[in-house]
Design a protein that fits this description.
The complex is a heterodimer of chains A (about 290) and B (about 300). A two-stranded antiparallel ribbon of chain A has the order 1-2. Chain A folds into two domains: about 35 residues; about 240 residues, Orthogonal Bundle (MetI-like fold), CATH 1.10.3720.10. By secondary structure, chain A is mainly alpha-helical. Helix content of chain A is about 75%, strand content about 0%. In chain A, helix 3 crosses helix 10 and helix 4 crosses helix 6. Chain B has about 300 residues and is mostly helical. Helices cover about 75% and strands about 0% of the residues of chain B. In chain B, strand 1 and strand 2 form a beta hairpin. In chain B, helix 2 packs across helix 13, helix 10 packs antiparallel against helix 13 and helix 12 packs antiparallel against helix 13. The radius of gyration of chain B is 26 Å and the shape is globular. The two termini of chain B are about 40 Å apart. Classes of the chains: A mainly alpha (about 290), B mainly alpha (about 300).
């Protein structure tokens, strides 16, 4: 076979592989949107489940997911951004032992399966600290899980601020914290915001950790405090499609719930991408 | 704009006491950031402590060798049996199949995106593929349950609707974005001079890719595959909903299997707290944790060596 023919065949194969993956994304999303749209309506979003979860909407699950992700962010954001500030601004690369430990730990955390965070949440928060099956326990477990996402994205944002900004501020006599507050953070803020949104999206979609720490199959009332159990969209989808009496009967509701979750998570990701590309354009001179 | 500058002037001008106080504030803040950074380390330690302090209690009632080599998992019966082997083989089968499916296609895709595709195609295809990573795992589980299971049943006329093949097909989709994006980075980081040297020697573009670019990005591709394995072995909801969950030792892709992740998620809801069964699930979690830890540390090791070599 000639060189040119081999190359043509090889490139066709490469192109085909990429096409298959891209096509499967569109097929997957198209299938879910196509089947989910008929179930979507304002009343589906604003009603509680009725008749043993065979009718009605997903309102309590949406509210539960909303509370849960906000509380998760409340814990994970200060911790994650603080860690990123330390890693990017304070850590001395020459004192590599601490840095090595922190970096390894962050990588290890990112690779730990979500169910293991569930076990930690159950053992530490639910039982050992006696927080019970609650939004609080779930949010704490989820904040551990989102921490590596927030740390690495925030650190990247801080590192894209050029060193000359810091040097300029130091030259004017600013202290370390003043430099960070006035010359670094304002420019890293969009990147940190992106990090938060990605963390939110991750927390909103997780099921396994909340399964072990406080998500409820069905609750007639919305949670009143952070010590209550709660309904959440991903867990709702799981129970509807595997544990209900007649999963085939409730298929339309299942597709509707899947679409709501998917829209929520993908739009959060989309917002993150838009913010990132907007500021990348704006600060092009920076990098 | 430089608020720092203004503030500093007023501070210099005011009483000398402010100076040490600012210093103290600076120290406190630095400590706070340092503590936040150490939180990751603390969480890893906490996971260790809680998995093993609970998990090891299981071995007061179960013989540890029995646990690791037993082939029957029957925690709720007259004579409870806690054999981990069915879950080990379940996890290995599902992970192995999904890696076999996703590695070739993902690496070819990454090669295409990095070396062949025009920048317009790349700018569109990359975010589309990354969307796969953003989809929650319960949605993948749902897709496996509702449609892929029917497709497999139609193709193989298999009586068992939910099986290992079903789980590994959704896992293939879930693992693909990880492998594609990391191996694309590795392939793109091959220095331009290598490629130019190959072309100057008369290689065709494909020869350059297959004989120079891919071999020199092998370690990066290896890391990508390892992280893919880590993601697959730790995946819970999708596998739980797709694989059928029968704790049997089998390597038949068309049989139902139960993974380590699934057994924890299913049985933790029904278990009496602080019973042997409860502790045994923590022990399963401990084994799972060690697996993912080893995979990540190997990947990390390769990344570091690769950086130390200057590439």
């Amino acid at each position: 076979m000639t060189k040119a023919a081999t190359q043509r065949i090889a490139f066709a194969l490469l192109r085909l592989s990429a096409a298959v993956i891209v096509a499967s994304v569109f097929l997957l999303l198209g299938y879910l949107v196509w089947n989910g749209t008929p179930a979507l309506s304002l009343s589906f979003l604003l009603e509680s489940p009725r008749e043993g979860m065979t009718a009605g909407g997903v309102f309590p699950a949406i509210v539960g997911t909303f509370y849960l992700t906000l509380l998760t962010l409340l814990f994970a954001l200060p911790l994650g951004v603080g860690a990123a500030i330390y890693l990017s601004e304070y850590a001395d690369p020459r004192r590599s032992k601490t840095l090595y430990m922190i970096r390894t730990a962050t990588v290890v955390l990112a690779g730990i399966p979500s169910i293991v965070y569930g076990l930690l949440g159950l053992g530490l928060f639910v039982l050992f600290l006696r927080l019970g099956f609650s939004i609080l326990s779930s949010a704490l477990a989820l904040s551990f899980l989102t921490l590596p996402v927030i740390i690495s994205a925030s650190e990247e944002a801080l590192r894209t601020v050029p060193p000359s900004y810091r040097e300029g501020a130091f030259a004017l006599g600013a202290t370390k914290w003043q430099v960070i507050r006035d010359a670094v953070l304002p420019f890293a803020a969009p990147g940190i915001l992106t990090a938060c949104i990605l963390g939110l999206a991750r927390a909103a979609g997780e099921t396994a950790p909340i399964l072990l720490t406080g998500a409820a199959y069905y609750l007639p009332e919305l949670p009143n405090s952070i010590f209550d159990q709660f309904m959440a969209l991903p867990f709702h989808i799981f129970t509807l499609s595997t544990q209900s009496v007649n999963p085939r009967l409730t298929r339309p509701i299942q597709f509707g719930s899947v679409l709501v979750l998917l829209l929520l998570v993908l739009s959060l990701n989309l917002v993150a991408i838009v913010i990132r590309s907007y500021y990348r354009q704006k600060y092009r001179w920076v990098t | 704009m430089w608020r720092g500058e203004l503030r500093l002037r007023t501070e210099r001008g005011s009483s000398p006491i402010t100076h040490p106080r600012t210093r103290l504030g600076e120290k406190v803040l630095e400590r706070a950031f340092w503590a936040a950074a150490l939180a990751s380390v603390a969480i890893v330690v906490l996971i260790f402590v809680f998995l093993f302090s609970n998990g090891l209690q299981a071995f007061r009632d179960i013989d540890i060798m029995r646990f690791l080599t037993g082939t029957i998992w029957q925690p709720v019966s007259e004579e409870p049996k806690y054999g981990l082997v069915p879950m080990l083989t379940g996890s290995l089968l599902v992970t192995g199949l999904s890696i076999v499916f996703s590695v070739p296609i993902s690496i070819l895709c990454a090669t295409y995106l990095s070396q062949v595709a025009s920048s317009t195609v790349r700018e569109i295809a990359k975010p589309v593929i990354e969307m796969l990573a953003a989809i929650p795992s319960v949605v993948y589980g749902f897709v496996a349950l509702v449609i892929i299971a029917d497709m497999i049943q139609g193709a193989f006329h298999n009586p068992i609707r939910l099986n290992a093949l079903n789980a590994s097909i959704v896992l293939t989709l879930m693992v693909a974005p990880t492998i594609v994006s990391i191996s694309e980075d590795a392939i793109s980081s091959v220095p331009q001079e290598y490629k130019e040297a190959a072309l100057a020697l008369g290689a065709s573009k494909w020869e350059m890719i297959s004989k120079v670019v891919l071999p020199s990005s092998l370690s990066g591709i290896f890391v990508a595959v390892m992280l893919g394995v880590g993601r697959a072995i730790g995946e819970t909801m999708a596998v739980l909903m797709a694989a059928g969950n029968a704790a049997v030792v089998t390597f038949d892709p068309l049989a139902s299997v139960e993974t380590m992740t699934a057994v924890i998620a299913i049985e933790m809801g029904e278990v009496t707290f602080n019973s042997t069964h409860f502790y045994s699930l923590f022990a399963v979690g401990g084994v799972l944790f060690l697996f993912t830890l080893a995979i990540n540390l190997i990947a990390q090791f390769v990344v570091r060596r690769y950086k130390a070599l200057g590439r």
